[in-house]
Amino acid sequence: MQKADTSGSSMTLDTPIADTQILVELDIALPSAEGTHARRYQDGRGSGERSSSSHADSSHAEETALAALREASLGVRLATMSAVLVPPLGVLATMILAWGGWFGWVDLVLMATMYVITGLGITVGYHRLYTHKSFATRGPLAAFFAICGSMAAQGPVIWWAATHRRHHQHSDDVLDPHSPHAGRAAGVVGACRGFLHAHMGWLFADLRADMKRYVPDLLADPVTVRINNMFPALVVLGLAIPAVIGGLVTMSWMGALLGFLWGGVVRMFLLHHVTWSVNSVCHVWGAREYASGDESRNNPIMGILALGEGWHNNHHAFPASARHGLKWWQFDLSWVLIRSLELVGLAKKVRLPAPERLAARRV
Ligand SMILES: [Zn+2]
Ligand SMILES: [Zn+2]
Description:
- The chain starts with a strand and ends with a helix.
- It is mainly α.
- 48% of the residues are buried.
- The strands form 2 sheets. The chain has a two-stranded parallel sheet with strand order 1-4. Strands 2-3 form a two-stranded antiparallel sheet.
- It has one domain (78-361).
- The model is unreliable at 1-20 and 29-54 (pLDDT under 50).
- The protein has helices spanning 22-25, 36-43, 53-99, 105-131, 139-150, 157-169, 187-199, 211-214, 216-219, 222-229, 231-250, 253-280, 300-305, 312-317, 333-343, 355-361; strands at residues 3-5, 136-137, 347-348, 351-353.
- The protein is globular and about 60 Å long.
- Bound molecules: zinc ion (ZN) (2 copies).
- One zinc ion binds at residues 127, 131-132, 164, 168, 315, 319.
- One zinc ion (ZN) binds at residues 127, 131-132, 164, 168, 315, 319.
């Protein structure tokens, strides 16, 4: 059964959210067996607040996870940078090959399949499961989604979630990691620069969100930390899978190269720009159906291309909702998958906004 989210603590974006409330306001269940993270977070005073051995144990685990993240950070940063800069070159090579006749249906199928698999890894896994906890699922399936999301080469899962929680907390204010509006200069040039910053310029700025503040729940989970630190290898895996399949289907090295290019590099390039367009396009163009306190928009083209994430005004108004396309005609492939998983018992605690909350926020 779907559960309408009727909690009174749901996120309110009419006013900026205080740093110390982001997890609570995002309706994220804190790892509060002993209340450690919630208390420390709300106190905002870091590791000096230990008052029992269980708190100390939990804090030690968190410190260990942070140390592992720091060790992995160089590889992670190199992988992220090359994942941004290399695909355009690969796309160019692919176009030249296609011009010479090196392109077939196998390549197209590999690209579309890998686009959907890694795309859903981002939308269902990284975003709706890990960042917003809009549903719950068993460990192996959650890990599978994180692995698929990692293959999209959009950064490791914990960093992605921290950055995105910060985006919701500060949406379109100066602390938003990727707003096309905040701090923007006047005129057409300012608008273009703001758009480019929201699209991909922000990736090159040092915007490491405060991990302890934004993702204590993820840092406390060793499996998530391990997948996070395996990010560079998982990006390579996402390139190797279509190469191997392309090679085996055609039994040729050229088939492997084309599988690598279409199912790996071109797919990565397209999904990058579609995902970044949710940050740029969906904060500029489209309809505002709900009061969300920011410039988020529902954009039908991005709704389809981004597998449901383009109904972005809906999402900012109801960030904890597992469903972003809230109307029957707002196609949301990610929601279709979550609902299907729920029907077969693999997704639980699926959260949806209650009708009265929808009505109260309708513009
Ligand atoms: Zn947004
Ligand atoms: Zn979100």
